[in-house]
Design brief:
Elements (H helix, E strand, L loop, with lengths): L2 H21 L4 H19 L18
């Protein structure tokens, strides 16, 4: 199995586990922290907002 597919399975499992634990209120704070940490790291790592030309880095706050 290639590494990207394996990572996709692991991350999907982690997200489902975190959502289930938060919904059941079992270790909710820990799994909420893990979810926020994952979203923050993946956003900064995968979304190339620093290299957007012109107004492309304005995002949702663009007034045009």
């Amino acid at each position: 199995m290639p590494t990207p597919q394996l990572l996709a399975i692991v991350v999907c499992s982690l997200e489902l586990l975190a959502a289930l634990m938060i919904a059941l209120n079992f270790g909710a704070r820990f799994f909420l922290f893990v979810s926020v940490l994952y979203v923050g790291i993946s956003t900064c790592y995968l979304y190339d907002f620093r290299n957007q030309p012109g107004d492309g880095n304005a995002g949702c706050w663009s007034m045009s």
